[in-house]
Design goal:
By secondary structure, the protein is an alpha/beta fold. It has 21 helices and 18 strands. Helix 2 packs across helix 3, helix 10 packs across helix 18 and helix 15 packs across helix 17. It binds ligand NAX, adenosine-5'-diphosphate and potassium ion. Ligand NAX binds next to helix 1, helix 2 and helix 3. InterPro entries: Carbohydrate_kinase_pred_CS, CARKD, Nnr, Ribokinase-like, YjeF_N_dom, YjeF_N_dom_sf.
Length: 479
């Protein structure tokens, strides 16, 4: 698992560790990691020009010590002090004694424009709000300059705990973060400002408490994959029911079934008007034309993709919500559901909205969901008492138990933004539910395989290509 911890947790862990190690040791570990990453970005340190953006906290201190290390290896470095009276004094002294220069009051932008490497040490976990105007101007100069931008701990200007970005922020090519990931490095919009991530161990691990976020890695995904055993038969592996598609949108039925067939359940039942289209593509499906209630036993239902809003669609959603098995509700199902019916359920419920659907469920504007994803997904899980998978450039999975870390998916790619790919995800995740996975495991493994599958499919991909690549993703994880 990759973990993300809140600022409060990081500060507590740092304080505990600092009480046991010599003064300044943590900052030196941070600076060593930064200088290493700077070296990798530069290729050749000797003769390189480095500009250091220095705010008034320890983040600036890290940057100054790292620059001192690069100076000792033959780089030239200029520090741009945003608040000269409050720059980290020991770091500044080390920087000067290694031969570093401080830019004149109006020379900052020039130093940045000429640099091969810009170290962004304006703010780290102590940053509040968007960058102040002087810092914002330098962030723009760094973006427009020729050098690589390396952020110290976090790209300055983003909100460390929420991944929100209020106003201007530094756009980094890479970020070196210390001790653990911070939520902003894993959740958009902030994560987009961070570039490539590198975690530097400063010895915090033993002192870190519970994470805010966790991201499955290959080994975690492999451990969750349902595998048939000697005693398995198709019913014991789980049967997933799919209530999707309509006369108007038969394709959604095909796509959801495609995902479901590759999700680990032993059989897929389809209930609804899309049967002929489903059978034409997937003859292995058990098809019926009526509502979920009449479709026979399943271990989980997927309801919603392409259902439309006819009375038959409403019945399908009501029936599926009334079934005492895990259920995944997507797309039109999210518009048709009765919140009370979701809250009353005792079996697991997974809701899979994209930002627009989440906005409608919350009564927020879509931009607010996209700007505050972590808040939105937690709020939905709390309001509905359900597991919520919020789709988009960052996919998040929140559990109804607020004490559980939110899961963030690391495999997504913008190539997934293609019509029908969400239908494949619904079928896939529902199948994992039917195979017996807990709701948040099914949702996070579904997102993981879905993203990986997109990465393994030649671009531009279609939703059916994506479904066809799921076995390759499965194999990739388990190999
Ligand atoms: N505490 C520790 O043990 C360690 C901390 N480290 C570094 O210390 C950082 C945290 O240091 P601090 O707590 O001093 O906080 P920061 O250095 O992140 O920022 C605080 C300073 O930035 C200013 N500031 C806040 N918001 C601003 C904005 N929007 N625009 C411009 N200026 C703004 C504040 O006035 C304050 O002076 C970490 O991110 C990490 O880089 C590392 O050295 C590792 C060890
Ligand atoms: N910019 C993006 N980066 C990564 N994944 C994305 C991006 N945009 C959309 N996706 C993913 O693509 C899928 C689209 O699903 P959805 O919005 O339901 O579309 P549809 O209804 O057409 O199937 C989701 O899994 C979502 O997370
Ligand atoms: K920074």
């Amino acid at each position: 698992m990759r973990y993300g911890h809140s600022v409060e947790t990081v500060r507590r862990a740092e304080a505990a560790l600092m009480a046991r190690v010599p003064e300044g040791a943590l900052m030196q570990r941070a600076a060593a990691g930064l200088a290493g990453a700077g070296t990798d970005l530069l290729g050749r340190v000797y003769g390189a020009r480095v500009a250091v953006l220095v705010g008034s906290g320890a983040n600036g201190g890290d940057a100054l010590y790292a620059a001192a290390r690069l100076l000792r290896r033959g780089a030239a470095a200029t520090a741009v002090l945003l608040n000269p009276e409050r720059a980290y004094a020991e770091g500044l002294a080390a920087f000067r004694s290694a031969g570093g220069r401080v830019a004149a009051a109006d020379g900052g932008a020039r130093a940045v424009a000429r640099a091969d490497l810009v170290l962004d040490g304006v703010t780290g976990i102590g940053g509040k709000g968007g960058l102040r105007p002087e810092a914002a101007d330098l962030a723009l100069a760094a973006r427009d300059g020729r050098g690589a931008v390396l952020a110290v701990d976090l790209p300055s200007g983003v909100d460390a705990d929420t991944g929100e970005v209020h106003g201007p922020a530094v756009h980094a090519d890479a970020t070196v973060t210390f001790g653990t990931y911070k939520p902003a490095l894993l959740v958009d919009p902030a994560a987009e400002f961070a570039g490539a991530l590198r975690l530097v161990d400063i010895g915090l691990d033993g002192d870190l408490g519970a994470p805010e976020l966790e991201a499955l890695q290959h080994a975690d995904a492999a451990a969750l994959l349902p595998r048939p055993s000697g005693e398995s038969d198709k019913y014991r592996r789980g049967v997933v029911g799919v209530a999707a598609g309509s006369e108007r949108y038969p394709g959604a039925a095909v796509l959801a079934v495609s995902g479901a067939l590759r999700g680990g359940a032993g059989a897929v039942r389809y209930a609804g008007p899309g049967g002929p289209a489903v059978l034409a593509r997937h003859p292995e499906t058990l098809v019926s034309a009526g509502s979920p209630r009449a479709a026979g036993r399943v271990q989980a239902w997927v309801v919603g993709p392409g259902l439309g809003d006819t009375s038959q669609a409403r019945t399908a959603v009501d029936d599926a919500l009334a079934a005492d098995v895990p259920i995944l509700v997507d797309a039109d199902g999210l518009r048709l559901l009765t919140p009370e019916a979701v809250r009353r359920r005792t079996a697991a419920t997974v809701l899979t909205p994209h930002a627009g659907e989440a906005a409608a469920l919350l009564g927020w504007a879509r931009e607010d969901v996209e700007g505050r994803r972590l808040h939105a997904v937690r709020e939905l899980a709390a309001r509905f008492g359900a597991t919520v998978l919020l789709k988009g450039s960052t996919t998040l999975v929140a559990d109804p138990d607020p004490g559980r870390p939110v899961r963030v998916n690391a495999t997504g790619t913008a190539w997934l933004a293609t019509a029908g790919s969400g239908d494949v995800l619904s079928g896939l995740t529902g199948s994992l539910l039917a195979a017996g996975l807990a709701a948040r495991d099914a949702a996070s493994l579904g997102a993981y395989l879905h993203g990986l599958s997109a990465r393994l499919t030649p671009h531009p991909l279609t939703a059916l290509d994506l479904a066809d690549s799921l076995p390759a993703a499965w194999h990739n994880v388990s190999a």
